[in-house]
Amino acid sequence: MINRRNAFLLAASGAAIAAVPALAAAPTVAVLNVRVPVIPGPRRTIAVGNIDLQGPAANASATNVGGPVAALLATALDESDEFILVERDAAAQMITEMDMAKSGVTTGTSAPRPGNMLPAQYLVVGSITDYTAPGAGSGLGLSIGGSTAFNFGGSKGDVRIDLRVIDTRTGVVVKAFTVQHKLVALTAGLSSNYAGVPIATNSFFNSPLGDATRKCLNDAVVQIATALAAIPWRGQVVKADSGVIYINAGAQAGVRVGDQLSLQRIGETLTDPATGAVLKQEMVTLGVVTVTEVEPAIAQGSYRRIVDSDPIRGDYVVATQ
């Protein structure tokens, strides 16, 4: 089955969207080709949400472009190895599977269960605000489905994507930024056929459009990593039992034996009286957890209290930097 990322790579090279399924055997190339800042502490869970099309690039024939660009961004985030990428594009299908298991339609120990999906701590959404070239000069014309949404009749143009990183716990936008790169269209219009579908001779990322898109996505991953590196990692207490604390992250999230985590509880939440939006959460530090044992999805550690209050399920553990 071809995914929306490969569909975009092939379609942007000149193939019609309707014909893309025939190209499932086409090779996949890496999106990320830059060094990404290291994010200290355990890895953050992140999901890529809706990326729509706005501005001069938006028209009825180009409405399917935002999804593939979102998929490319998700791939780049995963390739950085700095995040745990969680799926949201197919969330409705996964919920359907859970509902079928809950109702007894599907059975067995491997059946999906409600409450086991890993939550995304951060969600990336945004808009493609420029994905067209000016009509000046001459060059290669790229199109999707025969439309003129990506007609590079000009010799240069821009790719611009506006993105927001949202803290899913509070709804606060922790980072809003724009990535933009210029492209210069090739004058050669060579193409070939694969399985009867016309594609560009060069791969997508070697084309002007592909190069500018990749640079934008690479810049986006760097900016996301930089922003989240400045925010301490946060997990939660699963269980507290006689001085032993179990937390909801393990080796898969990068938790290691010897890590020291501040155990905190929400004291007071300050909200906007007009909108109800969370403005600030006052955190109370209860003690320190030192990780002593790590499994793939869970870790446990000893607890040293600072105040006279016992930890409970749902309290937060925050990486100290």
Number of strands: 13
Main CATH class of the largest domain: Alpha Beta
Structural class: alpha+beta
Number of alpha- plus pi-helical segments: 4
Number of domains: 2
* Average pLDDT figure: 75
Largest sheet: 6 strands, antiparallel, barrel
- Report the CATH superfamily of the largest domain: ABC-type transport auxiliary lipoprotein component
Query: Level of helix content?
Result: 10-25%
Q: Terminal Cα separation, in Å? A: 43 Å
> Order of strands across the widest beta sheet?
8-9-12-11-10-13
DSSP strand content? 25-35%
How would the blueprint of this fold be written?
Layout: H1 4-11, E1 44-53, H2 66-80, E2 83-85, H3 91-102, E3 122-130, E4 156-167, E5 173-184, E6 191-194, E7 197-200, H4 208-229, E8 234-241, E9 244-247, E10 260-271, E11 278-294, E12 299-305, E13 316-319
Helix pairs in contact: 1-2, 2-4
The gist of it:
This protein has helices spanning 4-11, 66-80, 91-102, 208-229; strands spanning 44-53, 83-85, 122-130, 156-167, 173-184, 191-194, 197-200, 234-241, 244-247, 260-271, 278-294, 299-305, 316-319. With 321 residues, it is an alpha+beta fold.
